[in-house]
UniProtKB/TrEMBL annotation:
Residues 42-62, 570-591 are annotated as: Disordered. It comes from Macaca fascicularis (Crab-eating macaque). This is Inositol-3-phosphate synthase 1. It is found in: Cytoplasm. Its main location: cytoplasm. GO terms for molecular function: inositol-3-phosphate synthase activity.
Amino acid sequence: MEAAAQFFVESPDVVYGPEAIEAQYEYRTTRVSREGGVLKVDQGVGEGGMQGERGGAGRRAWDPGFTARPVFRCTPRPRASPSGPPGRCPGLGSCLSAGAGTTAPHSLPRCWPTGCVCPGPRSGRKEANYYGSLTQAGTVSLGLDAEGQEVFVPFSALLPMVAPNDLVFDGWDISSLNLAEAMRRAKVLDWGLQEQLWPHMEALRPRPSVYIPEFIAANQSARADNLIPGSRAQQLEQIRRDIRDFRSSAGLDKIIVLWTANTERFCEVIPGLNDTAENLLRTIELGLEVSPSTLFAVASILEGCAFLNGSPQNTLVPGALELAWQRRVFVGGDDFKSGQTKVKSVLVDFLIGSGLKTMSIVSYNHLGNNDGENLSAPLQFRSKEVSKSNVVDDMVQSNPVLYAPGEEPDHCVVIKYVPYVGDSKRALDEYTSELMLGGTNTLVLHNTCEDSLLAAPIMLDLALLTELCQRVSFCTDADPEPQTFHPVLSLLSFLFKAPLVPPGSPVVNALFRQRSCIENILRACLGLPPQNHMLLEHKMERPGPVLKRVGPVAAACPVLNKKGPVPAATNGCTGDANGHPQVEEPQMPTT
């Protein structure tokens, strides 16, 4: 069924007001306790509520088992702006800016010739779109219609979201190239599109940024010609001035800062240096060790701007997280989940969920963009290796039938820099699992992906979902004071390789569980039940008057009979729908 653009929830529990959608919602959880080696399950229900309004921050809420009454408030959509370094490879910032520009309803190009005359995916004319974006190209199922068919709506139609074309871009980079020059150097976009975008991208020039050589690979020094001078404290203050200037000059309601620059080496967490907000601010003031990304995080938090870390290093050290809690500012991370790791979070979930004991995972990839060049340095590769290796942990721990405590698969990650392939990253993966009776199963995958074009829509989703979360808040009957999401915005885990979560919270890496979390929280804001995929009405012997089945209804007690002649397939082949010839089966006794 075609996705509908708009819908309306008709329920006594949902009220559409001039400035808010208010919905009562029951949220149930299951408590499990151990008594003498036996698990006792109790489905507790408490009481609570939820509300959302413009400009909210976030914090975690309740104990398991309660009834929530969500209220979502929506005023006219603000002009939110993602702002940040143009990219760990120059193609990332230029791709996002170009994507937003080519889909906007103004003079920028919306279609372009590829320049390739041979048949294939790169031939002919292409039109701008947001493929790869959860919010702009994904759909959700609202429910079933009178014929029992699912009805889908765009993900962005669930709740009022900022339109991508309303975003305004700015950022910092250690390279002084404007985005047109960076676009040409990256060699990601088709030449015809680059030519059309050039006069628009040429006007976008990054602000000077922070360069601390020991945090990124030495091969990046040739690009470092656009730098903020001074001490760490002076650099911090300059970043804050840049944010204030951008907000004022562009007339923005909100700014969301994304770190998309080079992968840094890990920063050691040292008591007295960066373990608390007070110590971290003092470290910056004294000019002691602090990474460039942490400087940007602190500046963003102090300016009340959400900060999202798209690289794998530990930017959000404990001191930065405490500062975000004190200021009630959203932070999220780490490391955009775009290609190989996204596949891994699906495949390992499938293997272990099917009862196969995955014992070996070997992931190799090579790429030739600036990200790959920076990752060729050992310390920067180590940051990436950590973020890519932890993605299977929760899936392994979810099955104590297969894995003993402390047991885990062998997991090897290799990244190589091959300049010739550019942004077209090649990933090869091998998954070996144990079967029954001593057997083994090995799956080998080859994945060719255009790195920047996968990451750019993720950046877009992060900005839009973070802004939406700033307009959602909750309350309970026991605690009627409105509260919002925890400053560590774990709702964004679907988009990160190594998702940050509030202290003590479980880390979920399985991709479809992460997506269901986002979808069901947004459904809760409309008073809709969570999507459970039961489709129980189609599994009942007597579905009742609500569901009208289409087509013949099978007999209650089917009888096995000899097969009759099979009609010809629609493609002109004789046999079944797949073109296989039909063989008459032997006579079977009936029951």
